[in-house]
């Protein structure tokens, strides 16, 4: 027992302490796995423990069983110390009781569970200040964690579930201990810290497993509501993501064996996100720090050859974070943090790499937006050339970093380089996407675009003249393309230029299908739908659709263009603000 309290002056506490020391020794004697019924000593150790526990005069766990005094506990150092010792011995005895031959002890230990939870809640109140023993700054967290661990590790899951429903405090505290472990552990005491971190993560994993394997609606309500109550809001969760991840990185850097829980760490965070997102209608920005910490931690995991799972779970968490908002900002941060290098380090994904595939989808969809593609261009000025191969276009192909590189170098880079987004309003690239909307005037060059991203003009005076008509359709109050900020004007112009280039490149291929469609159904609105979202590898594809005209809003031309986009969580189908005359597609 590493803990030596100062001499207890209170006679009762001193006696209790002596009894607990005896129990501690007996517990280690009883914790021998081997000979089950032959070893006399072991049997007698178990018998002695039960004798002591049954003897009311022995005072074993008397303080633990007593009710916590109201208030002023922080000043009663002796009581706090003896409780911490009690929790330690409780954990030792409970662990001994998990051996099949010590079953008898298990029943006795269970009677102490509610007391452990009650004292745990006093020492470590959920959403409150930690109470510490004097001169002993961190240890009581370890004691509480170990005591909980010995309860949660019981093989009797059904009983544990009933117990948790009767004592929801235990659930709340588990989450609380997990949420704040970077605050409770001293980084300098690596062994102690990693033991505590190990403990809190294991506690959460056990709860999570109960939920996954046995969950009924009431379980779900208990666990998920408590979890959400503990976390509070998304901002706290994002803060937790970066704080915990950076803490674990420090532990791992100091001692590679310190943390064996990387993949659990990432999955638990993803789990929390899953619980919190539906309950939070307001979505704050995902902080850059959180994204950077995940990417660098995942790289570290690959470097120290942590189980491959860890980096995959990290990518899963990144995908969830990117989809937590309706903007590509988190994705751009991930690119800035070097997530593409991480994909390269991971190499060829195996068939179970769902997390990698989903992340690559998110990344490739995002690359059609200037914020992400510019970040990519900045971070990776020379992406290695990848030779296109028919295998990459096959339906069952699992994408990897090479597919991203191929999409980038063969399709996207020329556009990104041609599109000088900083001076987008001055470059010629988008001016030819459409004509000035004002019907009178010379209109030889376009210099203006309405903030709604759908109306283009050759001059300010044209824009003014056309305003009485355009105001009926203008959606500038909801941001460009009425997307509520998901798409910036920059994105909108870039996508227009991209679509324009794509169509002029494939004009002849499209012409056959469009001509056939126009011949057979002259009254329909033909639309070219370019997929910049689902199926963009190895290069984006398009389909040609026919709508009955009244279902669509009017466009300027007979052939309209739509794009499927991927912006964070949203996957809008966006009509583009230009069209083509049928003659354009005549061969
Ligand atoms: Zn004009
Ligand atoms: Zn407008």
Note down, in words, how this protein is organized.
The chain folds into three domains: 1-170; 281-418; 431-585, no CATH class. The chain is built from 24 helices and six strands. The chain is mainly alpha-helical and 587 residues long. It has helices spanning 11-30, 40-54, 62-65, 77-97, 103-110, 113-123, 139-152, 157-166, 168-179, 181-184, 190-214, 217-231, 234-254, 262-276, 288-303, 308-322, 329-336, 339-346, 354-366, 370-379, 401-418, 460-470, 489-505, 507-520; strands spanning 448-449, 456-457, 524-531, 541-548, 559-564, 573-580. The strands form two sheets. The protein has a four-stranded mixed β-sheet with strand order 4-3-5-6, with helices on one face. Strands 1-2 form a two-stranded antiparallel ribbon. The termini are far apart. Residues 421-427 have low confidence and may be disordered. Bound molecules: zinc ion (2 copies). One zinc ion (ZN) binds at residues 436, 438, 441, 443, 457-459, 462. The site of one zinc ion has 8 residues, from loops.
